[in-house]
Structures are given as structure tokens and as C-alpha cells.
Amino acid sequence: MKKLLLILLTICTVALLAACGGSGSQDEDQAANQAQAQQSEQTEEETQMDTKNATLLYLGHGSIRITTAEDKVIYIDPFAGDDDWYGPAADLILSTHDHYDHVVFDKIGNRNDDCQVITRKEALAGGEHQTFDFGYAKVEAVEAGYNKNHNVKECVGYIITLTGGVTVYLSGDTSTTEQMPSLAERNLDYAFFCCDGIYNMDTAEASSCAALVKAKHSIPYHMTDANSGVYFDRSVAEQFEADGRIILEQGEELELQ
Predict the structure, then answer these.
(1) C-alpha closest to that of 163 among 47, 45, 49
(2) Among the four residues 144, 188, 189, 226, which has the most C-beta atoms within 10 Å?
(3) Residue 60 burial by CB count (10 A; 0-12/13-18/19+): exposed, middle or buried?
(4) Of 139, 141, 161, nearest in space to 152 by CA
(5) Beta carbons within 10 angstroms of residue 170's beta carbon
(6) Which of 189, 130, 121, 126 is nearest to 158 (CA)?
């Protein structure tokens, strides 16, 4: 009798252990499946990030808006453009110099809490051209000025390098600078050249600068007198000559790739 009870107890114990072991195995399988699903979702998000390109909206005159692949929004020289174009919340605001047609910061009422503003004062801190790394973009201040309206010690241009390596050069208000020939070594993707011919170089000089910089695509901007209220002039833009030239109308968007 005692032997029978011992056998029955052993059978029950084995059955109980098997049941527990099965439950643990199911839990482990479920956890593994969940981890695999999360990893797949993460991989899909990374793939989408890899395939998404930044975009650039030409606001008119010298004003630009860039939206990065991470959906970070950068405004450069705010002045021209419809108020709606300044709707997306700013993460970064850049200004090349202090003239009124480059510093209308009030147009950017929507800003994220950590939004940063870089003016020529920060860009030329200590009399040296500064570099700022925000993770989603690296911003390098470069030379601008060299004419009676724009002092090289008070003006900058910018080279913006986005994740993925796309580069955008914005000349700011300038004439030919001593630094431009060295920019050819950077193999820049996009380069904007001012060409109003009133306060800055004209289209002929801007075309010569484009030949110095040798970007893959060169784009004319700041092509009119801001006092005219006209912030894009196709007849002027078409006088700008460069390999890989792109002409952007005011309000036109460009995919950066």
C-alpha cells in the first residue's frame, strides 16, 4: 500500500513538473515572439529613416526652410514667405547677418522648447568661424561679405551637413570670398549664391563663384532688392549660369538627396 502511494505521488509530481515546465516554455516563447516583433518594428522604422530624404523649401529672397529626415525644422534668414510656411515648429534658426531682411524672427512664432538661435554673433564668437553639431545637422560658419555693404567680420555663410552626408552651402550676402576656392574640396551637394547685383554680386560674379565652389547643384537666390517687395525674379535667376543649376521658384520645395 505504501509502495502504491509512493508510485502515485511520484506520478503526480512528474505531471506537475511537466505542467509547470510547459507553462514556462510557453511564457518564454511568448516573450521571444514579442521581442522579435519589437525588433522588426524598430528595423522597419530605421529602414524608413534610411529611405526618407530631407526637404528644402525656398521661402523667397534669402529665406530657406529645411526639414531633416528626423523631422527637425531649420529656418535660415527668416524674412520672405507666407506666414503658413513658417508654421512648422522650429528646432534651429540661423541668421547670416543683422540686416533687416535676414532677421525677422517674429515670423517664427512656433518653436520647440529646445529651439536654438544662431546669429552672426554666435557664428563669429571670438572672431573665429564656429561649428555647431546638433546631431541631426552640423552647421559650419564660413566667410561672407567682401563688399561695401557687408563686412566680413560681421557676416557669415553656412555649410549645413545633414545625417546621411547631404551638404547645403548658403552664401549669405556676399561677394567672392577668399575661402570659396577651398570649398571645392568639400564636394558640396547644393550651393546657394546671392546675385541681386545691388548690394551683392551680380549674376555674372555669382556664376564665377559657382565655378569656384563646384557644387553638384548651384542655385541662385537673393536676386532682388528687398525694398521692392518682390522676392523672386526668374529673369535674374536665368542669367545665373552653373553646372547642375537648379532654379527654385518662391514656395517651391526641393528633395535633398
Answers:
(1) 49
(2) 144
(3) buried
(4) 141
(5) 26
(6) 130
pLDDT band at 134 (very low <50, low <70, confident <90, very high): very high
Residue with C-alpha cell 547642375?
A: 244
**Cβ partners under 8 Å of residue 188, min gap 6:** 159, 167, 168, 169, 213, 214, 215, 216
Report how far apart the first and last C-alpha atoms of the chain are (Å, whole number): 84
- For residue 174, the model assigns a pLDDT of 97
Q: What is the mean pLDDT of residues 8-17?
A: 43
DSSP assignments along 56-85, one per residue: EEEEETTEEEEE-TT--EEEES--SS-GGG
Cell of 124: 563669429
Give bridge partners of residue 124 from the DSSP assignment.
none
Q: Which amino acid, 84?
A: D
State which amino acid sits at residue 163. Answer: T
Q: What is the CATH number of domain 54-248?
A: 3.60.15.10
